[in-house]
Amino acid sequence: MLEEILTFSAEHLDSCAHVYVETFKQEPWNECWSFETARVRLWETLNTPGFVGFVLHHHEPLGFILGYCEQFYDGKHFFVKDFCVQTDKQHQGIGTKLLNHLTIVLTPMNVSQIFLLTLRDGQAEAFYSKNGYCRSPKIIVMSQQLGSRTDSWTF
Question: What is the CATH number of the domain that holds 29?
Fold first, then answer.
């Protein structure tokens, strides 16, 4: 079986939730996802109106990209909600293949812009820059911590 890009569906939830947990527990994210919380997140994204997602598969999922289209005043935009590649498979072109495939699919859908959130000044930002993405000169991310938790990740 050769490497193939498949449309993300419910049948990919379990295997991709495992990839998600393993990827995001590593540097630089150090996030504490459980299989259950990762699966719920992916399921919620899958069920978002305007969902588009793909899995690069070769005997197992090597990586995936998920997000959704939304209307904006100047046309349709696509928000990349989650994108990850197995840690030991990074730097092999998998992420670039997924981004390229996403662009090919979104173009005839009249999507005018793709946007995403990522960590500043790290390997992820360098990857996106290499693939033609740039920092927004107008938008910043702001957050507010709710409750008494002090151990959660903040923007």
Answer: 3.40.630.30
